[in-house]
Design a protein that fits this description.
- There is one protein chain.
- This protein has one domain: Vaccinia Virus protein VP39 (Rossmann fold), CATH 3.40.50.
- Helices cover 39% and strands 24% of the residues.
- A seven-stranded mixed β-sheet has the order 3-2-1-4-5-7-6, with helices on both faces.
- Strand 2, helix 3 and strand 3 form a beta-alpha-beta unit.
- The longest helix has 26 residues.
- It starts with a helix and ends with a strand.
């Protein structure tokens, strides 16, 4: 997915994610007036929620490798009146351009364990940049039920390469995102914790939510047709194509949900 398309998807699906991410951030009870980082911040939408959580005297730094995301993030922060409370910096989260003990906390979403790189070196780098007693927290999409009434098709979609991503057959089970408590323990974090947060939706959807769900379907199951048998492919196209008369979001009894899992731990010291 190119940068512009991915940016549109982030913005379009934000109405689905915002409440669930806000709930996860509230669970962390970030100290008022504290300074933290959003690692892999994208267009900065979660920086706004983090800035709300730490109050007027707090500060959030968003870091990402994509300049276009950061430019849009600055626009979003300015429009929200948060320019003084949020700053953006281009950088590699594996080699953070900050000194040791620079932040009170680090947050990351859909990044640690959910990208094609090793989680432990990334977490170690985050740990380095957080003050003793601070926290490192990350969250990622962990499960969903989006096709009510079609559990077999949805199970098949879950076994496709995009449905399994970033896990692949033969991968070490300890590298799976849902084994992240072990990563915190291995790196010496204190009090590692995990919690799941759910977002549900049902018909009738307003235009904004419908558009968000359409983007979600497209991003969750992009290019899966080649991995499906003809009969399953036909059913997938019938249910998930917005131009189909049987598009599942148009069903009057539609209901679906997805889950994010959050893991966090305290930096020793």
């Amino acid at each position: 997915m190119d940068t512009e398309t991915y940016m549109k998807a982030l913005l379009a699906t934000n109405p689905l994610r915002e409440s669930i991410i806000r709930e996860a951030i509230e669970t962390l009870r970030l100290p008022s007036g504290s300074s933290g980082m959003d690692a892999g911040c994208g267009v900065g939408l979660q920086c706004l929620l983090l800035a709300e959580a730490v109050g007027l005297d707090g500060h959030v730094t968003g870091i990402d490798v994509t300049p276009e995301f950061l430019d849009r993030g600055r626009e979003i922060a300015k429009d929200a009146g948060f320019s003084e409370r949020i700053s953006f910096k281009e950088g590699d989260i594996f080699n953070l351009p900050f000194d040791d003990n620079s932040f009170d906390w680090i947050w990351s979403s859909d990044c640690v364990g959910y990208a094609p790189y090793e989680p432990l070196p990334l977490m170690q780098e985050m740990k380095r940049a957080v003050k003793p007693g601070g926290i490192v927290a990350f969250a990622a999409w962990s499960s969903e039920k989006l096709l009510p009434g079609y559990p077999i098709l949805e199970a098949l979609l879950g076994t496709t390469s995009v449905g399994l991503a970033p896990f692949v057959p033969g991968k070490d089970p300890n590298k799976h995102f849902l084994r992240a408590l072990g990563w915190f323990r291995e790196l010496g974090f204190g009090e590692p914790k995990a919690e799941v947060f759910s977002q549900s939706f049902c018909a009738p959807a307003n235009d904004e939510m419908r558009n968000s769900l359409m983007y979600l379907f497209e991003s969750r199951w992009s290019e899966v047709e080649s991995e499906l048998e003809p009969e399953d492919r036909a059913q997938f196209q019938r249910l998930c194509n917005p131009d189909s008369p049987d598009f599942i979001l148009d069903h009057p009894d539609y209901y679906g949900f997805f889950n994010y899992s959050m893991f966090w731990g305290k930096v020793p010291g």
